[in-house]
Write a structure and sequence with these properties.
By secondary structure, the chain is an alpha+beta fold. The chain contains 5 helices and 14 strands. The chain has 2 domains: 168 residues, OmpA-like domain (60s Ribosomal Protein L30, Chain: A, 2-Layer Sandwich); 183 residues, Porin (Beta Barrel). The N terminus is likely disordered.
Length: 373
């Protein structure tokens, strides 16, 4: 076989039958913990909220589906406020412990950053100190209504960072140490104090169910849809030919006919397991051809370029394309190709060779290109 020159461009088309834009399960359990900054909102008109507040929380969460979860959360909050007296402002503080049960709904669970909303109720225990009404320096056991909004930030397979804001209305007007019966500043105009808190913590998914089918689906395809007809080599060659400049094809085929390897190679059948960057056994025989070419041309150095389709976020696709390109490089190295001859680069969803609006086009765009340096 003759040596390849700098015009060689090898396309390894990855026909990934289960390419999910996010790593997710249909159901799961998670444990979380973090810090809290609480602050009074609607309280006695003769007082204002302090700033030296703090707290912490722990949580246990059950995800029943990709979108819906039920969460138990225990929270400790220390809040301060200042009320006006004839001798100046006095500080009132309250220690509050709450145990909440909230229903959470994730808007885009398949994305690396998944916003969610939640609502629920909590049992609360609190004890004001130095209250403006001395009889309120006591222990109270009540309940509250919770409204929450936040986001999960995926940092690994099992870990998430949680950022969340909550708005809470207890069942009485005693939390700030003043039981005024005519303020009506609570949720829906109730005569209750309100407060907010801001949580920042982590969530660890320690148990997972079956891999998500929802995050593996393309637009317009249902779980029970019939499998697509497999692409043939002729299908791939036609789509690639239709999307390449005609002048380049003419130059390679007509003007330089002596080296067959100067044509573009399209290898179909390199796959990955669902939700991973692990090559399937069917892929090895296909990639073996690339190993043979590189072995027979020891001076050839290549850049392994990873691409994805346009499904999922741009950031996730960029990372996915690089991880899968690295897996291909690892395979080549394991088969005797020097790592010094290889370079990995991920391009995500850029430079598509087919139409991302069609399922067949997206399949072609999930690919690896071998390009000489």
């Amino acid at each position: 076989m003759e040596k390849l020159n700098k015009l060689l461009l090898l396309y390894v088309v990855l026909i990934i039958t289960n390419n999910a834009p996010a790593q997710l399960s249909e159901s799961s359990w998670a444990f979380g913990f973090g810090g809290t900054y609480p602050r009074f909102m609607s309280i006695w008109s003769n007082s204002y909220s302090g700033t030296e507040n703090y707290g912490a929380y722990v949580s246990l969460q059950r995800n029943f589906s990709e979108n819906v979860a039920l969460r138990f959360l225990g929270n400790y909050n220390y809040l301060e406020s200042f009320y006006n007296t004839t001798s100046g402002y006095q500080k009132e503080s309250v220690s509050l412990i709450s145990t909440s049960l909230d229903l959470l709904y994730y808007l885009v669970p398949c994305d690396p950053v998944s916003p969610y909303f939640g609502a629920g109720f909590a049992g609360i225990y609190f004890k004001p100190k130095n209250a403006s009404e001395p009889e309120l320096n006591d222990n109270f056991l009540e309940y509250q209504m919770n409204l929450r909004a936040g986001a999960e930030w995926r940092i690994s397979e099992n870990w998430r960072v949680i950022s969340e804001a909550g708005y809470f209305t207890p069942s009485s007007n005693k939390l700030d140490g003043e039981n005024d019966t005519h303020e009506h500043k609570g949720l829906f105009g109730t005569n209750c104090d309100t407060y907010m808190n801001f949580n920042l913590g982590v969530l660890y998914y320690f148990s997972k169910g079956k891999p998500s089918q929802k995050c593996d689906l393309y637009t317009g395809v249902t779980v029970n849809a019939q499998p697509l007809n497999p692409l043939t080599i002729q299908d791939v060659e036609k789509i690639v030919k239709d999307n390449l400049p005609k002048e380049v094809i003419k130059e390679i085929i007509v003007e330089n006919p002596i080296t067959a390897m100067e044509k573009k190679w399209v290898l179909v059948g390199v796959n990955f397991d669902f939700n991973s960057a692990v090559l399937t056994k069917e892929s090895f025989s296909i990639l073996l051809n690339a190993v043979q070419v590189l072995t027979q041309n020891p001076d050839l150095k290549i850049e392994i370029q990873g691409y994805t389709d346009s499904m999922g976020s741009e950031t996730y696709n960029l990372n996915l394309s690089e991880r899968r390109a690295k897996i291909v490089m690892d395979y080549l190295v394991a088969n005797g190709i020097s790592k010094k001859r290889l370079e990995v680069k991920g391009f995500g969803e850029s430079n598509p060779i087919a139409d991302n609006k069609t399922i067949e086009g997206r399949s072609l765009n999930r690919r690896i290109e071998f390009k000489t340096k």
